[in-house]
Design goal:
Largest sheet: 2 strands, antiparallel
Order of helices and strands: HHEEHHHHHH
Oligomer: single chain
Helix content: 55-70%
CATH superfamily: AhpD-like
Amino acid sequence: MTFSICSGPRGAVLIASLLATSVSFSAYAQSKLPDDLDPQSRARLPYLKKSEMDEKSQKAFAIFPSKDGTMTGPLAFAAYNPGVAIALLDLHNAAVGAGTLDPHTRELAILVACRETNYNLEWNGHEASGLKAGIDAKVIDVVRNNRALAGLDEKDATVIRFGRQMFRDKKVDSATFAKAAGFWGKRGVMDMVAAMNTYAVSGYFAIAVDEHAAEGKPELPPLK
């Protein structure tokens, strides 16, 4: 069975329910911030300021998002070593920008990686991108809430199953790999691994510094 993009009264009800759930997670997140977080970055480390960096490191500000001389964005903490952040940007461009996956599959792979690393910042950006790419809101709900894959389109189920096995089990079984290769080819499977892992790397930086979602933005629920 294939889910269609939500439309009509049922779709409106589902989207409203998803928004309400996001609001409740946001309220929970805002009330549970640990004491060791920087109030601006909402993480254990402050954002880097251009005025505090040497001349060589300041060149990163020409590459990464910044506001009023303060670096922000998904690689803000990786940029404590600017060379690492630049290398990760190159990895992203090769894995995502030059990859062979269609937008639907690519965005779903990214969402799976963000879910598996509880990476709020990129999840909140790519949830909208995923809907725009044609991922059904029901599928996104399955990823967000770690639901069973029964009833999903087989391609969507394969992406989610592949990511869950890779990140959780540390082993992708033969059947899942063969199915993914059948859908996207050998290069496509490796592009999916690359896309998932480039976002997971940023997610691990967020884990290390306990980065919380921006004020007013929802946080992913704990994986159960």
